[in-house]
Amino acid sequence: MAAKGGSEIDQQKLQFQVELEFVQCLANPNYLNFLAQRGYLKDQVFINYLKYLLGLYWKEPEYARYLKYPMCLYFLDLLQYEHFRREVVSAQCIQFIDYQQILLWQHYTRRRTRLLQRQAEQVQNQTVTNTNGQGQPQKT
């Protein structure tokens, strides 16, 4: 019995890994275009699979933390709409999405860099203040 239970756990782990990998692939607009051009986004079985994935646990924090590309959740949402599924066949549409995604990443990278620089400056200012003898905690 223990072997069967272990095998069942291994199957669940494998299913999680496969679904995780597939969901993350959806963050790539060129992959969406690939799926659309090959007719997957017109196949009702595939559309049902996308609905199944959306209804799963991916938006729950304990599972979302495994996502390296959280943009995939946004695209998974959009894939629920027939209009979006029709549009991603177009290379021009994909190029626009890809460009917008790059701009978004650049914005947040710059923002994060500025935030980290401010934090480093604050730590440096605190260190300078403490070495000058100011602001040191008093002994009680």
From TrEMBL:
Q: Which keywords has UniProt assigned to this entry?
A: Activator, Nucleus, Transcription, Transcription regulation
User: Where does the UniProt annotation locate this protein?
Assistant: Nucleus
Source taxon at top rank: Eukaryota
State where it is primarily located. nucleus
What family is this? Belongs to the Mediator complex subunit 31 family.
As for what it does, the entry says:
Component of the Mediator complex, a coactivator involved in the regulated transcription of nearly all RNA polymerase II-dependent genes. Mediator functions as a bridge to convey information from gene-specific regulatory proteins to the basal RNA polymerase II transcription machinery. Mediator is recruited to promoters by direct interactions with regulatory proteins and serves as a scaffold for the assembly of a functional preinitiation complex with RNA polymerase II and the general transcription factors.
- Assembly notes: Component of the Mediator complex.
Q: What is this protein called?
A: Mediator of RNA polymerase II transcription subunit 31
Upper taxonomic lineage: Eukaryota, Metazoa, Ecdysozoa, Arthropoda, Hexapoda
